[in-house]
Amino acid sequence: MIKLRKPYHWLILLGGLVLVSGMTWAAQSDLGELRAGEYSLMAINNHRPEVFKDSKDYWKSLQNIELKLGGQETFKNLPDLKMKKPYIGEIVLGEPAQKFGIIIDIAGDEKRLYVDSDGDGSFTGESWYPLLNQWQGLQIYWVEGPEPIKLKVKYGANRCPIQLDVAGVVNKPGPFYNEKPYLKVVVRTWFLAKLPQNVGEKLVAVVDRNNNGRYNDPEDQLFIDHNDNGYFEDREMISRKKGLLLQDGKRKLKVDWDIYPEKLSLKEGGR
Question: Pairing between strand 17-19 and 50-52?
Answer without folding.
Answer: parallel
